[in-house]
Design brief:
about 190 residues, alpha+beta, 7 strands, about 20% strand
């Protein structure tokens, strides 16, 4: 077979390609397409893995920053002896686990206030989504609602033996959740 590409109306050379048998080049063409497909698939997979790793690294950094902010706020609130908020309501009931003489007070103009300790403030901030989602847990919680789940219990035990942080990625439906616990000492 003789294939020629002719230039029309311009001084282009005549390109001719002689193919003696298409079947002789079929294997080469199939191999080239297969190699290209593998290269594209490999490139896609490497890019996906890099994106996944980057997302995990960003989540870990966000968890670390959030923990630092939470610890800083908690220390600030503790340095002031807690925060009084008006009035005790269903959304902010007095903390029954806070047994101090001046937990519930009334101002000179008759406004009722309740004392929120740092842990209670942090719990409400986290539950209501004002800060990154998280929980304050302990192996010996005063409030049963702060009891650790199975993963948190293992993480708390590892922290107690000296681990600086514990993290894991768990898949829930199509989203991912990073669990991270950094040790917070009572202040």
């Amino acid at each position: 077979m003789l294939y020629c590409i002719l230039g029309r109306g311009v001084n282009l050379p005549i390109f001719c390609l002689v193919i003696s048998s298409i079947s002789a080049y079929r294997g080469l063409l199939v191999g080239a397409v297969a190699l290209w497909s593998v290269a594209v698939a490999l490139s896609f997979w490497i890019g996906r893995q890099a994106g996944y790793r980057q997302a995990i690294d960003m989540a870990i950094n966000e968890a670390r920053v959030s923990a630092k902010i939470s610890i800083g706020f908690r220390r600030w609130a503790a340095s002031h002896g807690g925060v009084y908020v008006p009035p005790p309501t269903e959304r902010t009931p007095p903390n029954k686990f806070l047994q101090v003489p001046l937990r519930d007070v009334e101002t000179t103009n008759g406004q009722r206030l309740t004392l929120m300790n740092p842990a209670y403030v942090m719990r409400q901030l986290m539950e209501r989504g004002y800060v990154a989602h998280g929980r304050i847990t302990s192996l010996k919680p005063l409030n049963p609602a702060n009891a650790p789940d199975a993963w948190e219990e293992v993480a708390l035990k590892r922290l107690a033996t000296g681990a600086p942080e514990v993290k894991a990625v768990a898949q829930h439906f199509v989203s991912f959740c990073l669990k991270s616990r950094a040790e917070m000492h009572a202040v």
